[in-house]
């Protein structure tokens, strides 16, 4: 029997002398699992080891490689110290340990908690382990959030990176100190803007002098920084200047919590409303004095309106440069409004630059909308209805599959509750354990029952929609034969538009429209 050994660092055990070393925890796991494999007479295929990764991280490199090799049937057994070393998520326990591993012919064994898929009798204990680990993750997430919230309210800096112009105080955790070299550039940016220079002009001035942007500055000085995703990442850009001019940290106020996590199961963040930010005044030394700050904020407010009417442009934040991907900015010349990529102004090599009049883009969008609507409305009605019904039938089929899966899990929890009661009666588990487990089983069963009820309501809505017919026809007809667009129509119909550079020798500008429907 070929065995794959999987090890993972315990978050509580960080005792490495050097970054490249294995932790003592990993070494102990390897020794224990190798000895166990020898005792069982198993041949060790390979050791997969993730150091410095949590049990809720699905992107662990060795964990992902282990699953890929398991699917290819390169070994027969996966051996871990505990089930939680493999994963702390109940969803992954069900997906792999109870789902895919049996299909792939893979046996899962963990030593300390006696999980073994070859023993059908301990499936319930594996599920309980999964639930306990899931609760642990959720509780740990809540505890961490509570601690971080308390620190934010007190004005302690808890970010991984200090804002450009500051450094983390080595003598006082959570406190920022001025980085004078970078702070001089911050003061210059504020001063230039207060004297009438635009954000793009300021960016170009810094680039022409070879001043590294915040990310590049941190990299060159050995400071922690976030890896940039865009090309030309060493250059100053319009948005770097714009963000700097509005950041209150530069006047000594700590402002945090602008983004919040979607769930403890994902690293994805979403913006939080300004009313929910944590703002504490006077937490550190300011770089910008109040008089200069107020002057800049007044200028920003005056320039915030892209058009003289004071209304937001119809394509604001919707038009992007096809070359560099940056949002195009609005400008006005002789009562005509234009959209342009300002990236080409920050440095000669930053972007080839895209440019189009708002009127031309508006007419291009209307023409394309009319073309699409004419093509759609001319389609054979029967063909359209068949295609539409097919889409809804697919949605209905997927929803029915999900409901069936949830109902199966409800049945498993119902059975589990009965078995827990019998275990209590037979003295296999204590009264307190029975109360604890049955409460959690019942809670999860109730949650799934609510999910099923919501699913059945969605099924009813789908059936009504199938009977009523496709409403996309009415949507398209509503916007045919338009002469002008407004912001409401653009918001409803368009996700974004990419604009290229004018084709030499012609008046044609490449445009690609990404619709919302």
Structure in words:
- The protein is 49% helix and 14% strand.
- The chain is of the alpha/beta class and 517 residues long.
- It has a five-stranded mixed sheet with strand order 2-1-3-4-5, with helices on both faces.
- The chain is globular and about 90 Å long.
- The two termini are 54 Å apart.
- The model is unreliable at 15-22 and 305-310 (pLDDT under 50).
Low-confidence runs of at least 5 consecutive residues: 15-22, 305-310
Which radius of gyration do the C-alpha atoms yield? 30 Å
Characterize the main sheet.
5 strands, mixed
List how many beta strands DSSP finds: 17
Total helices: the number is: 16
- Spatial order of the strands forming the largest sheet: 2-1-3-4-5
Q: How far apart, in Å, are the first and last alpha carbons?
A: 54 Å
Shape: globular
